[in-house]
Amino acid sequence: MCIILDANCLGDFHDWSNEDMLPIRKWMKERNGKIAYSDTERFKSEWKSKRLNYKELNRAGQLKLVPKEDVLDAQARLAGKLESDDPHLIALAIVANVNVLVVQRQSDEPLRGGRRRARGGDTALQKDFKKWVRGKIYITADHKHLLTRDTCP
Predict the structure, then answer these.
(1) What pTM does this model have?
(2) Yes or no: is domain 2-146 CATH 3.40.50?
(3) Are the CB atoms for 142 and 115 separated by under 8 Å?
């Protein structure tokens, strides 16, 4: 199985003290989990700006490359239909058949009934992901049940 990391959570992903990302790193190491990505300009610039250690993840076999042309074609078909400004993520999920999106928890997110909820509900990206991909959103370690044993297709 693959996941998609929103660029906003890449800093959290590299922070070894971040408890919400610990299940993801463990899943990648122990269950052959991978991060789906494409080598489009948008992904390259986001990953570079967040200093994602692409080479290390690639050497460890923890990345799944999705053809750039396929992602760009899907992105073009989504033009003007999304609420968010992340058509590259939605297109990647559709093309790669990925149904888990990892997003950053808002720092002022309130706790309700012991569970963390995004303030004000879903973001535009989360809404688009649920609508177009019919996927699930991983925000905190409480969502580790979304990480399955399967590997990327």
Answers:
(1) 0.85
(2) yes
(3) yes
Domain boundaries defined on the chain: 2-146
Tokens of 88: 């590259």
* Partners of 35 in the β-ladder: 3, 63
Exposed/middle/buried for residue 49 (C-beta within 10 Å: 0-12, 13-18, 19+) = exposed
Q: Give me the phi and psi of 136, to 5 degrees please.
A: -115, 155
DSSP-derived 3-state class of residue 105: coil
For the ranges 39-43, 83-87, 131-135, which has the lowest average pLDDT?
39-43
pLDDT at residue 112, as a whole number:
46
- Burial (CB count <10 Å: 0-12, 13-18, 19+), residue 109: middle
Angstrom distance (rounded) from CA 134 to CA 52: 27
